Amino acid sequence: MFVLDTLIHRLKRGCETMSYPQGPAPALPDRHGGALRVDAAKCADGCSACVPVCPTQAITRAPGQPVALDLGRCVFCAACVEACPPGAIVQTGDYRMAVRRREDLMLGPSGQEELRLAEALDGKLRRLFGRSLRLRQVSAGGCSACEADTNVLGTIGWDLGRFGIQFVASPRHADGLLITGPVTQNMELALSKAWAAVPEPKIVIAVGACAIAGGPFVGHAAVRNGAAAVVPVDLYIPGCPPHPLTILDGLLRLLGKLEEKRERVPGGAG
Questions:
Q1: What is residue 261's predicted lDDT score, i.e. its pLDDT?
Q2: Predicted TM-score (pTM) of this structure
Q3: Which structural domains are found in the chain, ordered by start?
């Protein structure tokens, strides 16, 4: 009788997996501000109020120039948004932030004015990985926040497996690595060995501010300031931690599973 009740209950609940990307993306929670954007026209002369409040030195300002923002270092604390008198730094509320090159996360005078979203792998790699991508997740000294949001993708609501993407226990069974954490000295050798064990061709995905640039530990002697110091990175997904939707969007872009590979981000960061 218990089994029958359970089956009836499941039938009443129906399908709980979200329709994205065919349907609309789920709304981000209010506390998640999404990607940041710098409006150079509003950047007041001589004002550097946002620079000292950034905990990871993601914001810099050269004399006579608007502020420059490194979304790879950014932990999205929004302290700069609150500290900026003219409102030159704003939260766009957009979840799309994954890029292929580290320099594409640099916004402002030292980089581009708009976020260049990730393009798909080349045709050969898309044919290899497009229908079946196996990833070995390596926590290289992470705090478990990025790891938790990555694990969420395996739940029934997100169902990462429907896109042919799965996490595996051994790098020898993987097509690439998904790395979180700043790569501590104690994890450097383990990460190198995991990378060497993945058969060619292979890819690397850096998830979170720590894996991209060291996060709050940037510059500390005990970390390597991100995965790129040890292995070549093919996809950068910023955040602290990135929302599961940001991670999923990046993975789908890498595999060419989104119809528009160069979408424009609302608010001008696209």
A1: 36
A2: 0.89
A3: 123-254 (3.40.50.12280)
